[in-house]
Predict the 3D structure of the following.
Amino acid sequence: MLMHMDKALLSLIMGLTGYLLGSVMFAYLLPKTMSNVDVRKYGDGNPGAYNVHLCSSKPLVFFCAGLDILKGFLPVFIAYTFLGLTGWQLFLPMVGPVLGHLFPGMLHFRGGKGICTAFGVMMGLLPDKLYALMWAACILVLLPIVHDHRRLILISIAIFVPLCFLVVQSIELNMCVVSVAVLVLSRHLKETKETAGKT
């Protein structure tokens, strides 16, 4: 039945599904549920996987990061692989999870940085996961080296966009990828300005 629905409607449904899924803040919920720890009281004050490692165990950090990746991956993978959405039809399914993570209603629209979720979005587009694994490997290698997480965000975006351009041979999808990158970057720049204003 879904396959016979209008593609624009399917795009909207998957975009809304992506937002709702993206707004589930695992890096906040799991430490809070398991140890009654609020990760927003650590590091940069965001409910993201970056702060989980400041107050919890490494397995939980990787688990939270994996769930953040999954919530970006699923809507795009389903829309792209099973529903046959292409080009601009994938715009909403791609930006939905990232918007949900950046601006989750459950936390008064104050979310995380969106790197893991954006990575999941990219993986949803890939027929071959090698490029995604290369990107993940670069981030994992850089993580212990780059202690400034803001700089890590910029580095990850610099790796993220060219890889997607190499993998996805579509102008429309490349523009969708750029949109996801801009969302993550704008979140970073907004917080940088807020931090500078307090000093």
